[in-house]
Amino acid sequence: MGILYRKVCRKPNLRKAARLVLANALISTSESTRDEAKQFQLRLEQNISDLRKQLVAGTFEFPPARGVAARKPGKTARRPIVIAPIASRVVQRAILDVLTNLPFVQSIQKKAWNHGGVKDGGVAKAIAQTYEGTIRYQYYVRTDIKDFFTQAPKEDLLAIVTKHTDEPEFDALLTRAVNVELDNLAELREHKDIFPLASRGVAQGSCLSPLLCNLLLHDIDEQLNTGGMMSVRYIDDLIIFAPNRSRALKGLKQLKHELKRFGLDAYDPPTKGSPAASAKAAAGETKKGFSFLGCDISPEAISPGKRARGSLLAKVDALCNKALTSQRHLKTGTSEPMTLASDPTLLSTLWRVSNTVRAWGAAFSFCTDHRIFRQLDADVAEKVGDFRRLWRAKTSLLSAADRQRLMGMSLLDDTNFDMLFAKLVASRAGTRRT
User: Fold this and answer.
1) Backbone angles phi, psi at 9, to 5 degrees
2) Which helix (H) or strand (E) covers residue 392, if one does?
3) Cα separation, 37 vs 21, whole angstroms
4) Model pLDDT for residues 130-182, shown as the tens digit of each residue
5) Taking burial as the number of CB atoms within 10 A of a residue's CB, which of 34, 39, 137, 400 is the most buried?
6) Boundaries of each Reverse transcriptase domain copy (predicted)?
7) CA dihedral in degrees (404, 410, 411, 417; nearest 10)?
8) Domain-wise residue ranges, the chain
9) 378: left (phi > 0), else alpha (psi -120 to 50), else beta?
């Protein structure tokens, strides 16, 4: 057993990986994922011991995952999300921790040309570097690598790692961790072809995918940061800065040439007489401002973009509409159980709206145009006000007790009383009367 494989098998590494995986899974929007995570956590140490034994014995297998063809907001296209079982995610995360400590991986990540899927990255750092490019350069080209995760060449991705590891057991485990097998192909129907089941593509949803793709693009990043150019990348979103239009477009041409070697391509921005094939590409003078990673950026300000603002308000609308269309009020006074997930109350809905607003604000806390935040607060307040008025109308015919239940407040009258004591008291009271 090689050094890297032994590191994956160590209990502290598996335990650390499990805690990271569970932290995300326990707050997942998927009820089945949350339930699976809770069950895994109940037997955490035993599950870690079982994983270690299987890995050491060479008997661990990655069970089939579940595919979700997620609809992209405002579009008909679907994004293929692969949801692996918790045990698979723990092993994948343990492999990732071993990989990120390899010297060649650390040297690449220190270059800071890409800020997605790296330990010390993030959107805020990408935007900070982008703003620097806005100040230093006169022209930009923004683009997106087409179908990056679904078309990335799997063999090339693995070869980048295995030529540095040269450890058969570890390399075989990594290969199995990257391969995708789905247990619900029949359910996916016409969308099954967008999932990475063959020689191309890696799983969106796997912690290994961003790292492998970043390693693939590292040499391209290096080329785009020489010759008077500067680039910023966040996974498959990329912007090139240059002193003039000619140099920026030359950088894009260079990018497309290098991507072609891997069977990939990038979107073209509009040119005279040729409109852009996608909103994912644009070009122009930096002083006029542009959009990148959900933000509007100009020398004067950094603001949440129009689509990001619309997304927040749409989420608030969705939460309010779910509560208003819920049939929870029909269950009041019955023995049918009520759950917060499917039967939202007034209080739980307001709590979810508050959390949504808080999370959105935290995601854009680096922005400088606070007027937009105040306007969004007013928009959310108006939506919440409308929601509460409609809620009152919906519940107006209920009794005071049922309105309280539907609000999400507990009633003492709903206590699950211990009938043993009631029978005891009743029997004693009857004896006295006799």
Assistant:
1) -75, -15
2) helix 370-395
3) 9
4) 999 999 999 999 999 998 888 888 888 889 898 888 889 999 999 999 887 77
5) 137
6) 51-297
7) 150
8) 3-299, 303-330+339-414
9) alpha
